[in-house]
Amino acid sequence: MADIPTIGVEEEFLLVDPESGAPLPRNRDVADHAAQLGLDLQLELTSCQIETATDVAHTADELNTSLVRLRRTAADAADQAGARLLAAGLPPTLPHDFPITDTPRYRDIGDRFGMIAHEQGICGCHVHVAVPDRDAAVAVSNRLRPWLPALLALTANSAIYRNADTGHSSWRSVLWARWPSAGPPPHFDSAAEYDAAVQMLVQSEVIRDDGMVYWDVRPSADFPTVEIRVADVPATVGETVLLAALARAAVMTALAEEDRGYPQPTVDAWTLKAAYWKAARDGLDGHGVDLRSNTAAPVQTLLQNLVDWVRPALEVAGDEDLVHRSLTAVVEHGNGAMRQRRAWRRRHDMRDVLAVVADATLEF
């Protein structure tokens, strides 16, 4: 097994009214307060969102410490701006649309993409894992495709939307799929083929620039990493660390298989799309599609299959016990979608959902 790669995580969060839960367009105010606290927050497309980014981490413990600091500081900054920070894939309650953050790029995206851009508030989590080069990133992307639905089901955290149960665990992923370059990544034979595809999308104005390549695995445009983007922002820090540990082990396993010349998996686009939808609907406590055999299986079985596939990498990285404990805890207590739905079903009161989400956001 190669050297243990470094990892980094970006988390997107909602800013909402502390009482009503309605999204608040105050990301600049929150970023200003965060700067005074020593934290550089990124502005997202809609002005009710901010993003944090960890330092490069070598261990899961380092990553956990960074995530706790970032969530705590961002929550304090939001509080100073009269907002509440929520780790949820979508706002449980929202206006008809969202104000676009006032930057030239975001205004242009809003003009070009209309309601797709204006009806956002979509919050995901992006895990960066170091890879040797861009060709390795593309090869890793191909090998991760069969496992992406399981990671989506694990992190699903957007069951409640527009003051209603959507019937899906990750409604975020359903809405996100409306973007022309979002969702399951295509299979590419090389970085050159990937770059040619991106160039075509830009030249044809399907996307504005290469920053709008939203596929759920992609070579990072800014770092020497492969970026796994399939997840809703997880409800808790612990779930984010679990996601990152699994993602790193999956990348390590994919690189090892590539080095040994193992054939890359063949996954038809329609079966991958079907598996995505099933993961978005059922989440952690339902059934999914085993893309190695094209058969139905409980999601928890699919996750165990993923753990079995990456177990040697988990052992090398020292993350096997962490993954076992964390996965057991999520199965026992429920992921974000399950927490939201339990709160909603008590009395169909949005205040219960907001309280549960807010508590999980700062559950350390």
Short account of what is shown:
The protein has 364 residues and is an alpha+beta fold. The protein is built from 14 helices and 13 strands. ATP-dependent carboxylate-amine ligase which exhibits weak glutamate--cysteine ligase activity.
Tell me, rounded to a whole number, the average pLDDT.
Answer: 94
What is the β-strand count?
Answer: 13
Helix content: 40-55%
Shape: globular
Name of the CATH class: Alpha Beta
What percentage of amino acids are in beta strands? 5-15%
What would you say this structure looks like, in words?
The protein has 364 residues and is of the alpha+beta class. The protein contains 14 helices and 13 strands. The chain has a single domain, classed as Creatine Kinase, Chain A, domain 2 (2-Layer Sandwich). The strands form 4 sheets. Strands 1, 2, 3, 4, 5, 10 and 11 form a 7-stranded antiparallel beta sheet that branches. Helix 1 crosses helix 2. The protein is globular and about 55 Å long.
